[in-house]
């Protein structure tokens, strides 16, 4: 089982640690997470800078601090079981800076980085430097093929999985291609088959596809 990285202060170190403790994959969100104060108490940090550039940098540094905090919490709760991932929005300003600095400061605590909200082209290169797995979120085989051609093919050994979100029914940051008709939803099955075919064509047939937003069945 793979916890979703809900970036609305839902997926954090406590949830990720609980999932990992049961030998599952826990995921904490890297979107401005809570940090600990000097006494170890969790607190929601306030942004105090006045101009836009300084506020951005302050939020970025506090996000890095918060991610490290959540990774530590998750690791403590997990008791060394399972895996712990971090979820980051690729189109978040300076996401690459955030990922790099968090992985440097939380070495050995984070097993993988989940990334969507755009095409995370540099994700494989970033995480592989730290021997950390990467999990791109895609909504089509075409998007995955672009990522593989733009660099993922050089870092195949660190592809932990591909996460599929349905572009019609998921509530997250999904995208349509020019060949998709927005008003005519397709069944997710065909999109998943397309992704599996792309993986097989690129020697990645053993990489798992994690089914995420918008894919469900009452049966």
Could you walk me through the main structural features you see in this protein, from its secondary elements to its overall organization?
- The protein is of the alpha/beta class and 219 residues long.
- It has helices spanning 13-21, 52-78, 95-105, 123-128, 141-149, 188-201, and strands at residues 25-29, 35-36, 42-43, 83-89, 112-116, 133-138, 162-164, 209-211.
- The strands form 2 sheets. It has a 6-stranded parallel beta sheet. A two-stranded antiparallel ribbon has the order 2-3.
- Helix 6 (188-201) links the parallel strand 7 (162-164) and strand 8 (209-211).
- Helix 1 packs parallel to helix 2 (52-78), helix 2 packs parallel to helix 3 and helix 5 runs parallel beside helix 6.
- The radius of gyration is 17 Å and the shape is globular.
- The chain starts with 12 loop residues before the first helix and ends in an 8-residue tail after the last strand.
